Amino acid sequence: QVQLVESGGGLVQAGGSLRLSCAASGIAFNINDMGWYRQVPGKQRELVATISTSGSTNYADSVKGRFTISRDNGKYTVYLQMNSLKPEDTAVYYCHADVVNIVRTIMNVWGRGTQVTVSS
Questions:
Q1: Residue 18: closest CA among 51, 48, 61, 53
Q2: 27 pLDDT exceeds 80?
Q3: Are residues 110 and 96 in contact, defined by beta-carbon separation less than 8 angstroms?
Q4: Using CA of residue 41, residue 95, residue 4, residue 69, what is the dihedral sign?
Q5: Strand, helix or coil for residue 105
């Protein structure tokens, strides 16, 4: 079974930077789109950024110009470089992947999340 494990969250001051990583493990045929989402208590989970296998990216307007998503297809890993962090970026960040299993079914897989806290 494919699992996604995030790392790199933590506490940072406003204006600082963090880099999140998410590695996939387990049996899979391939991984299509990967991405990052975030959620604060009492609100819906929202898209932060996604990236396709070919490297096409999509960002939420609130993070454009500050965050960069990238991936290493050989390592089944996706990264999120977060610069110029703001207190409003504080949230639990979740990794997501569209995983193609060995019978070619696409599975919607989520990580457990990593906390990012930006102090003012």
A1: 48
A2: no
A3: yes
A4: negative
A5: coil
Q: What is the pLDDT of residues 66-90, one digit of tens each?
A: 999 999 999 999 999 999 999 999 9
Residue with tokens 């989970």: 45
C-alpha angle 90-33-112 in degrees, rounded to nearest 5: 40
For residue 84, which phi and psi values (nearest 5 degrees)?
50, 50
Q: From residue 108, give the alpha-carbon distance in Å to each of 3, 13, 43, 82, 105.
A: 11, 33, 21, 24, 10
Which residues make beta-bridge pairs with 98? 108
Say how far apart CA 9 and CA 107 lie, in whole Å.
25
Q: How many CB atoms lie within 10 A of CB 49?
A: 22
Q: Which pLDDT tens digit goes with each residue over 102-114?
A: 888 999 999 999 9
Residue 88's SS3 state is helix
Provide the residue count of the chain: 120
- Of 75, 9, 1, nearest to 36 by C-alpha is 9
